[in-house]
């Protein structure tokens, strides 16, 4: 059975100098339609309650995530490890009722807590952007 690391290596090989010409020429823009199509196919599998197809289509969405991350790594922008680290940190941060001391008693409270934390993150990000703009103007 292949591992996630094997899969990342397969995608890197597909994009290598001796890999697949089609895969090598893909860009973020050229893959947009692929990601949209694969996501729609996930929705259809869910609607049809087709677990075999859902497994396949989730793999196709994962391919899009890894392929885009590989392109970014080639550019020096970020890696798949950065993507995983970022989303892991977000999940821990937005679930203080699981990974911290916060308490919730219902799915609704959990969602409200998630949205409150998300709003705080967005406000902090916006403030950091404004602060960087002020520093650049000095």
UniProtKB/TrEMBL annotation:
<dbReference type="GO" id="GO:0046047">
    <property type="term" value="P:TTP catabolic process"/>
</dbReference>
<dbReference type="GO" id="GO:0006950">
    <property type="term" value="P:response to stress"/>
</dbReference>
<feature type="domain" description="NTP pyrophosphohydrolase MazG-like">
    <location>
        <begin position="26"/>
        <end position="99"/>
    </location>
</feature>
<dbReference type="GO" id="GO:0046076">
    <property type="term" value="P:dTTP catabolic process"/>
</dbReference>
<dbReference type="GO" id="GO:0047429">
    <property type="term" value="F:nucleoside triphosphate diphosphatase activity"/>
</dbReference>
<dbReference type="InterPro" id="IPR048015">
    <property type="entry name" value="NTP-PPase_MazG-like_N"/>
</dbReference>
<dbReference type="InterPro" id="IPR004518">
    <property type="entry name" value="MazG-like_dom"/>
</dbReference>
<dbReference type="GO" id="GO:0006203">
    <property type="term" value="P:dGTP catabolic process"/>
</dbReference>
<dbReference type="Pfam" id="PF03819">
    <property type="entry name" value="MazG"/>
</dbReference>
<dbReference type="InterPro" id="IPR011551">
    <property type="entry name" value="NTP_PyrPHydrolase_MazG"/>
</dbReference>
<dbReference type="GO" id="GO:0046081">
    <property type="term" value="P:dUTP catabolic process"/>
</dbReference>
<dbReference type="GO" id="GO:0046061">
    <property type="term" value="P:dATP catabolic process"/>
</dbReference>
<dbReference type="GO" id="GO:0046052">
    <property type="term" value="P:UTP catabolic process"/>
</dbReference>
<protein>
    <submittedName>
        <fullName>MazG family protein</fullName>
    </submittedName>
</protein>
């Amino acid at each position: 059975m292949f591992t996630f690391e094997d899969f990342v290596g397969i995608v890197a090989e597909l994009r290598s100098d001796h890999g697949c010409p089609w895969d090598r020429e893909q860009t973020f823009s050229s893959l947009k339609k692929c990601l949209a199509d694969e996501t729609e196919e996930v929705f259809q599998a869910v609607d049809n309650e087709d677990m075999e197809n859902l497994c396949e289509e989730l793999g196709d969405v994962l391919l899009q995530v890894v392929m885009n991350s590989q392109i970014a790594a080639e550019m020096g922008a970020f890696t798949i490890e950065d993507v995983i680290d970022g989303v892991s940190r977000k999940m821990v941060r937005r679930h203080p009722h699981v990974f911290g001391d916060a308490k919730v008693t219902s799915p609704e409270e959990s969602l409200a807590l998630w949205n409150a934390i998300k709003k705080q993150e967005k406000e902090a990000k916006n403030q950091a952007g404004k602060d960087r703009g002020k520093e650049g103007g000095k």
